[in-house]
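Human: If only I could read backbone structure tokens as easily as an amino acid sequence. Take your time, and here it is.
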Amino acid sequence: MELAPEGFEEAETAGRVELAAYGEAAERVRAAFPDAQLSEVADDWADRWREFHHAVTIGPLWVGPPWEAAPGIGRAVVIDPGRAFGTGAHPSTRLCLELLLEEERCSLLDVGCGSGVISIAAAKLGFAPVTAVDADEVAVEVTGENARANGVAVEARLLDAGSSELPVAELAVANISLAVVEAAAARLRSPRAITAGYLADDRPRLAGYRHAGHRELDGWGADRFVRV
């Protein structure tokens, strides 16, 4: 993580986990681990990586990349999986969207917005106003770009949920890590919350909230909470 903060590839091969870094990150890894294997990347890498990103359908929502054609029915959420995390295909994101479909439409806060998938999907479903916050400046910028590309109103703010006061909203969605979800809970001022970003066996504890439901998908979990 320290050597390749821009991101790296993880794959299971022959019973072992292989990590691959690219560009300048690869050079830093090689300097730290001289025995690391170095290989040339095929010339068509810029196109081949797109093969791993495909659209998913959750209820009336179609969430996919811009190079795939959205169907003529339902609500399309087009997300370019570029500089910020989040394409909609990850089980934790899909769980959040499933739970979101069951919620009464109201104001919404997306904590740790990443690429803005949840914020944009919420706006498409009729939640308003929608506020998205993230501690990563790039994520805030990308969320704003994706929101404009999808023609929805999302206010994206640079904010650290672990140390800053969070905006007021009737529903908060936090699809991050277990530790950050629990840390952010103390600053939530929402009567309802949806949390995800952790394994199915994890049970988050949110101070001031009671647990109101749990859902699992492919080893990941999501929960619904109501303020006491």
About this structure: The chain has two domains: 9-41, 85-227. The longest helix spans residues 137-149.
